[in-house]
Structures are given as structure tokens and as C-alpha cells.
Amino acid sequence: MKRRDFVAAGTIAVMMAFGAAPAQAADPVKVGFVFVGPVGDFGWTYQHNQGRLAIEETFGDRVETTFIESVSGADAERVIEQLARTGHDLIFTTSFGYMEPTIRVAERFPDVKFEHATGFRRADNVATYNARFHEGRYILGQIAAEMSETGVIGYIGAFPIPEVTAGMNAYVLGAQSVNPDIELRVVYVNAWFDPARETDAARALMDQGADVIAQHVDSPAAMQTAADRGVYGFGQASDMIDFAPDTLLTSIVNNWTDYYLTRVQAVLDGTWEPSDTWGGLAADMIRMAPYTNMPADVAERAAATEEAIRSGELNPFTCPIFAQDGSEVPCEGDGVLSDEQVLGMNFFVRGIADRLPN
Amino acid sequence: MRIELAPRTQVSPWGRALAPVAALIVSFAIAGLVIWLMGRSPIAAFQVYIVDPLMDPWSLREIAMKATPLVIIAIGLSYCFRANLWNIGAEGQFIVGAIFGSGLALAVHGSGAGIWVLPAMLILAMIGGALYGAIPAFLRLRFGVNEILTSLFLVYVAQLLLDYLVRGPWRDPMGFNFPQSVVFDAAATLPAIAGMGRVHIGVIFALIAVAVTMIVLGRTLFGYRLRVSGDAPRAARFAGFSQARTIVTVFCISGGLAGLAGMIEVSGVLRQLQPSISPGYGFTAIIVAFLGRLNPIGILIAGLIMALILIGGENAQIILRLPLDLALAFQGLVLLCVLSADALVTNRLRIVRVRA
Prior knowledge:
Structural class of chain A: alpha/beta
Low-confidence stretches of chain A: 1-24
Strand order of the largest sheet of chain B: 1-2
Order of helices and strands of chain B: EHHHHHHHHHHHHHE
Mean pLDDT of chain B: 91
Largest sheet of chain A: 6 strands, parallel
Number of helices of chain A: 11
CATH class of the largest domain in chain A: Alpha Beta
Shape of chain B: globular
Low-confidence stretches of chain B: none
Oligomer: heterodimer
Order of helices and strands of chain A: HEHEHEHEEHEHEHEHEEHEEHH
Shape of chain A: globular
Distance between the termini of chain B: 9 Å
CATH architecture of the largest domain in chain A: 3-Layer(aba) Sandwich
CATH topology of the largest domain in chain A: Rossmann fold
Helix content of chain A: 25-40%
Number of domains of chain A: 2
Radius of gyration of chain A: 22 Å
């Protein structure tokens, strides 16, 4: 390589970057994403990035997208502000920890629209969105109870926060609907994405006799480990079937794509509102991957449960619900637990042997 | 044939001064080559990475803020490192300091307490960090335990303590049980400097730490003792300097400053406790201390350069859509080049031929 070429290549690129702007009818809408993990985690951030790619594909020249990966809480405010300053019109902040920084930057940039995933604070230019993952977990619980021979099933949790606790409770309630004596073992790994610890957790659960493993962590590592011992498992966030083709029963797939497309369209149309979206199967924000590696009757029952939840006929948190200590949980919804109770869930239901870390 | 590094008997002061500059140029050249091989413009990358942040007042302010915890911690570490004591646990002292100070902020939350809260928080944070830093010093003096190991292990203890507090007793009761404290009252939040955007007065603390350390190291008996204990421990003992006192003092200073940095970061930037309050500042500061050659002004410059590189990496992702991995690789490259340049200034390369 010649030095001259090197300089020439650079000069041309700079001219392209700073000189002639491409002729366009209107400025594209700029959409920014702040990610908590790497886009290659095959879980949480991967699925959000799928939504980003779909925006580019669907809207073509009318949009431009940007993302920043692995942003820590301390850096979040600066990163979000930098996106706002560089002309982004719509900014998705995709982790709970970005809530306060999102609100603070939104105050300084009233013309920019913000969307915060999994949080609860909104403003005139801040919307929130989340998915009812626990709906899918109820189905997983039913399948697990039917597939388990030992009557012991395992669960790998990330952190003892309400979202994880609600998912775990829905899983147990689903399992109890098949086998009231089912036993759940829980291991927390204290991370969303830590393949080594997720592997260790899967081993620990299998050593305790669990023969079906569910997970609320982001990598496919535990599913691979379970597959090595021929133990069944469920994928998280994305369809993880390729990582355990003979033992994966199904996955809960987070589908942010439709939501993202709707929101970008709303910005293009000028109809964007700071809404609060919390959709499940009915809103297509979560989807069930194909039911595989199980007898036909189990798959049929799972599909029926899925349909019942989608149509609203079945709610995983239908009263009465009993807490671990046997006391009945107050029923604040209409025959079911209220959304607030689910969002702030801080108790284990009856039938979970482990204590909720506190 | 093999290559040897032989120490130079005379090290030119010019060489010492210019080595980091040469190192930066070499690392830019290598990074530029990589970017060019990726089919992107190295000049545009240089512009976005280094030039733009330095030309833009907003970016300059953000650099100052990002550098603040790094400089304060690194200044503290320089006391330890000068005395040949290896405090690797500034990250833990940072966290414990933040816990001590935040404890007060949470205790008086909503009580309308006045302006005394903030100074008290900062003092508590220094005490907390200093006490936590004193643990490895004590273990070394009493039981002869290696301070590198104990100070490092105590980082994990501090992280888990914080984790416990924000998930348990200090959790925001109105926060849907999510693991974080309430957002501090205004009285417990570091005020911004007028006309400087969100830049808080913590930046001034960093400058004070630099200035005070210059005086302490250059003009006081303590500074002299520190240098002697580090450079010539036997001479220090003959001179009657107490080694025990030096160890305890430098660990307390180092821990105290790390604790102060933790409180500044929590009260000025995060404004609440979360399970994780530091993206590894305590470890990055070790690099900053060495890049700055344990000299206060050097540390200030090194902290600013480190902050520039971190923020430039974000710009490269946003504006040029260069991957994060490239920014991380570039940070590593800069460090490698600076250390190599140092080695080459103090040593010379010698090719030794060996007969088979």
C-alpha cells in the first residue's frame, strides 16, 4: 500500500463527509438506540437491534439509525444527550437503568422524542414500553410440568427484580395447573449476560435433579449446557433453537419490531404521543417460537393456552393467588392481580421452595 | 539471536517528555491504518474522534466531567504507588465512600435539611473510603498479607454491599421494587457550575486535589518521606521514618480520595444509588496514574486524555457508525504505545547474537 493512496483515500472520504450532501427531498428522520449489552448477545439487545434493522429496511431513505452498545449507567446521560444534539428525532433507551438520564435529557430537548423500555416515568416527550413476558412464562410452566419426569424443574434468574419474579411466579402457576406438587429450584446469576455463570447455574440445577430448565438471562449458554446432558430447556428473548436443536422446547421471542415500526411511522406522520405500552401475546410484542421436541398433545395444549391468553380468556395471575407463606394476595385488579401488582411483584407464590432474596 | 532491553545509564529529559507524544502519534497511525483497511476514512475518524470533541464546548465540558473521578482517584493512588504500595482496590473504596455519603443523603431525604448536607456527605465519603482503604494496610502490617490481593478482593465485597443496600434497606419505596434508591434532594446534589451546562463543582475538587498534592509532594517533609520510602526503603528506615505510619497514611489518603470521587459521581452525575455506580473508574484510574507518571500535573493531563478517548469512541459510534470494539481496541493501543515508548526511553534495544 502506498502512502499516497492512503492520504488520497482519506481526503476523498472527508470531502464526501463534509462536502456534497446527497440530494434528498426531505431530511431523513434520525432514530437513535442506546443498548445495555452487545448487539451480538443473541438475547435482549439482539432483539432490539433486529427492530432497528427492520426500521432501516422498511423506511429506507426516509430514516437513518444509530446505535451505541454496552452503555453503563454513569455514561448514559452523556450518550443520550449526544444523540439528541446530533439531530436524532427519536431515541430509544432500552434498559431500565436509563430511566433517570432519559428524563433529564428529555427536559433539555423538548423537541426530541424519547422512548424508554421497561421503566415507569413518562413526560410530554417521553413514552415507555415493555412486554408482558410473564404471559409466555405461564405456557412454559405448563410444558415444563408435562415434560418433567423427576417433578423438579429449574429456573435461572438474572436479578430478584419484579420483572423476573413475576415471570418466575407465572412459570410456577402454569406448572401447578398441570402438576400441583411440582418443585421449582431457583439460581440467580446476578447478571443479564454472563455466559460462564449461566452455564454454572444450569449445571447446579441439573445436579439438584431438575430435568427442565427455564432461564431469565440473555445468553444461550445454559441451553447449550442442558443440551449436553439431554435436559430440556426454554430459550429467552430470541428463538434459541439453533443452540439446542434436540432439547429446546420453545422460546419466548421478544418482538420489538412492530412497535418500533409503528413509533417511527408516528414520528413521520407527526402523530407521535408519549404513550405507555405494555403488550403481550395479543399485541404481538411477545411470540412463542415453534413448540418442538415434545409429544403432540403437549404442543396442542401449549398452543391452546397461548390462544386463551391471547384472547384474554386466561390471565396467568387470576385470583386467588397465595403467597409463599400461605397468605392470600389482595386482588386489586378485576378478578386478577392489577398491572401495578405485577409490575412491582415482590413475593414468591406458594410452591416455590427457595426464599426470595431480599 | 534475541532482542534484549538494556537500561540506559543516562535518560534524556527530552526523551522522557516527548515519549508520550510520540506514543500518541504512533497509536493514531496504527488506528488510522486499521480504519483505512476497513474501508473508512482515517482522517474523518481522527476528526470525529479527537478534533471535534476538542472544538466543541459541550464535549469539552463532558470531558472535564468524565475526567473528574479518574483524576481524583489517580491522585490518591499516586501516594500509594510512590511509596511502592499497590492499592488495586480504589474501585471498592470509591463505592464505600459513595455508600457512606449517600447514607446521610437518604437519612435526611425529604426533611428539608439545609446546605450542611452536601459538605457532610463529602466528608463522610472521605472517611468511609479512608477506613475501607485502611483495611488492606492493617492486614499487611498486622499479618503481612499482600495488599494487592486484599485491596482487590475488597472491591467485590464493596460491590456486593452496595448491591444488598439498593435491593434491600435503601430501595426506593415508590420505585416498583426496582433496585435503586430515591433520587437525592437538591440539598444532596452537587450544584452545577453557572454557565457550564451540567458540569458540577466536583470538577473543582479534582483541581484542588492536584494543587494540594503538588504542594505536599514538593514542599513538605511528608512528601519527602514518601519519596524516600518508595525509592530507598532501607535509607528511609535508617532515617527513622516509620514504615507502618507511611503505609497507613497513604492507604487512607488514597481510599479517602477514591471515596470522595465516588460521592461526587453519585451526587453529581447519577443522583441516586444503583447496583452499579462505576464503569470501572477505580481500575481505569490505575492506568491514568501511570500514564501521568505519578506526577499531579501529568495525572491531570492523562485523565483528560483518557476521557477524550472514551468520549471520542462514543462519537465514532454515533457519527461514523464505527463499532464499539474499535474504540476499545484503540484505548488499549494508546496504553500499549505509551508503555512501549517509556520502556524505549529508559532502555535501549540490543540485538544479541547467540551461537547455536
